[in-house]
Each structure stands twice: as C-alpha cells, then as structure tokens.
C-alpha cells in the first residue's frame, strides 16, 4: 500500500538523526539504541536497519565504536558521539526543525 510505503520511508529518513541524538545523550550499544527508538517513537527497528546506520555513522566519523567487557558474557560494542557528530547534530536538527515548521504551515 502506498501510504505504508511513504510512512516507512519517512521513518527510515529520520533514523540517522534519532540514532545520533540517542548516542549524544549516552554511549549506547545497538540493542539499547533500538529499544530507545521503540520506547520514544513507538515503532520497532530491525537489526537489519539499525546496524547499517551505525556502520555508516562510523564511516562518516560522526560516532566511534569501542568495546566493553562485562564480568560475564561476550564483550559489547558501544558507540560514542564524536566532536564532528555533535556539530552535525546541531546542523541537522536546525534543518529538521525548519522543514517540519514549513510542513506545518502547509497543513
């Protein structure tokens, strides 16, 4: 259905910003980020969606990974925001807020 397709595309479009915002507040690992998105935005994000976003953000040097070894179990890969990422968030949120304001004027 066309409406479902458009909604899916809108969700995918905002996810990189949402991921950056979550990591900027607290270093996080993949599942933690997915859970926070579900809690905050009210929709699930598949692993097949979140990890490519994390890899792209790392490649663009907006976030960087590091490993944490817990007392038991496997090490966990956390992500932290970089200084470049912090500057990017400011620009992207300004742009996002401007666009949503303009869309609001059309409604």
Describe the SSE topology.
Blueprint: H1 2-25, E1 28-29, H2 30-41, H3 47-59, E2 63-68, E3 76-81, H4 83-106
Antiparallel strand pairs: 1-3, 2-3
Helix pairs in contact: 1-3, 1-4, 2-3
Structural features, described:
With 107 residues, the protein is α+β, with helices and mostly antiparallel strands. The chain has a single domain, classed as Arc Repressor Mutant, subunit A. The chain has four helices and three strands. Strands 1-3-2 form a three-stranded antiparallel sheet. Helix 1 packs antiparallel against helix 4 (83-106). The mean pLDDT is 92.
Task: Summarize this structure as a short list of keywords or feature phrases.
single chain, 107 residues, alpha+beta, Arc Repressor Mutant, subunit A, 3-stranded antiparallel sheet, 3 strands, 13% strand, globular
Give a short synopsis of this structure.
With 107 residues, the chain is an alpha+beta fold.
